[in-house]
Write a structure and sequence with these properties.
- The protein is an alpha+beta fold.
- It is about 20% helix and about 35% strand.
- About 15% of the residues are buried.
- It has one domain: 6-pyruvoyl tetrahydropterin synthase/QueD (Tetrahydropterin Synthase, Chain A, 2-Layer Sandwich), CATH 3.30.479.10.
- The chain has a 5-stranded mixed β-sheet with strand order 3-1-2-4-5.
Amino acid sequence: MQTVTIFKELTFDAAHFLPNVPEGHKCRNIHGHTYRLKVFISGPIDNNTGWVADFSVIKNSVKTIVEQVDHKFLNHVEGLDNPTCELLAKWLWGKIKPLVPGLKKIELHETPTSGVIYEEG
């Protein structure tokens, strides 16, 4: 069976600090990011619809999770007391996975040039 991978991208803004970095590290101070979240879904192309999944359904499902962190202070979100990009991606994965069938991986950009790819496997 052939499968393809599609993606949906959303953005959100949030502030945080990293409590476990050394004193004097710039990330120990409160700062913010415009995060870019890309969600990848794999599956067969449906013979009837011609798609793997409805982009609007994906967007609406993921949006419910993104709203939990959008314009929030991440250190105050339950489970994100040390909100590194890696741990935020793991947290997002755990929330998105039950809502999005066929979830393959997520890509989270903290800045235009830095990010993480999270997949379980």
